[in-house]
Amino acid sequence: MRNIPLNEALVEARQTYAASRPRTQAVHEAACAHLPGGNTRSVLYHGPFPMRVERGEGPYLFDVDGHRLVNLLGEYTAGVFGHSHPVIRRALEEAIADGLNLGAHTVAEAELAALVTARFPTMEQLRFTNSGTEANLMAVSTARHVTGRSKVMVINGGYHGGLLYFGGGGIPINAPFPFVLAPYNDAATACRLVEEHADDLACVLVEPMMGSGGCIPAAPGFLASLREATTSAGALLILDEVMTSRFGRHGGGALAGVTADLMTLGKWVGGGMSFGAFGGRADIMAIYDPTAEGAIPHAGTFNNNVLSMRAGIAALAEAFTPDVAEALHARGEALRGRMNAVFEQHHVGMSLTGIGSLMTIHATASPVNSPADLATADDGAKELVFLDLLERGYYVARRGFIALSVALGEAELDGFVDAVEDVVRHRRAVLPSRLAAAA
After folding, report:
1. Which CATH number does the domain 86-319 belong to among 3.60.40.10, 3.40.640.10, 3.40.50.1820, 3.10.105.10?
2. Residue 375 burial (CB < 10 Å; 0-12/13-18/19+)?
């Protein structure tokens, strides 16, 4: 049955949003003439027309209509530094001063590689790419080559880039690999599938926490079970840590006590620039050694571009050290607890899942262990909370995703919790009820 009061509240919230953003609407309408739907990055789109920003400063965004917003989206984890962190900015300015597009090996790429392997011991050796999507495609292709097998096991509802998207089971433009879909956090079923496809299974590609799938943490033992199953089957385990590499001192796999054969990076590791990396066991990565007989070529004009290399060095060595990562991780754990307490106190059927500084608001109070558990969640309630938070000056993803940055102070986080509580108080009558769900 449709929630009529919620629908009416949504109409009101959309009208309020549009009325206060005339320039945003005009920019969007002009963009539609040249971009399909006025958009070139699907995840950012929301109705009635998407927000348009013109600049960022510290933890704040400023849209084209003059609104200042506390940015809690953190560029979908790439923006862990906030906007124009002084250390990152200095590194970029120095790189520009030394010249762009050098077309040669540099000292910077060797220095960044050393920092990455020290930070993530799974990566005995690595190769740089231009994005997390590219890193995952390279890791999967590497696994298929070294094993001589074709199949790739992924998680139903998972996301590993624009050509490796498995929401709803997958999209028509996915990379043309033969995929095996497994459920998240169902170790028995996933391991059974590994065994059933062992003869032609090259790898299992999995996140320590499903990021785009809803910030759903791996259950205790799930990753360890996959590690054991892939080893027995002669397949490779690939951990996609494009998002989860920010967890603690050494990333999500290390938190779970699991060492993969290969892992992938992106986002913040390049200082927020266009960046990706894949790597792992030295014997696997040796196929890319140009001095070896039969070496596999891996080119890419911008693999070692000076902006990403220099920004990445600044990120790992200064701006987001292991100690800084640990501190942000703890702040995220505390924030998620405070937010869940607000929903529980007001008997609202909403909750947050996540690990550390990454979390997602869900329109359900029931346990969320896989994307399937969100099938009956009320998406309209999430949109309402999103729009109401914008009106109060706080920006999260339309889908409820939150990625904290080091630029956020306690004042911004306290204000965010207060804003959420204000939304809940104002909209409690139309939001899902925790009491009704328990009845």
Report:
1. 3.40.640.10
2. exposed
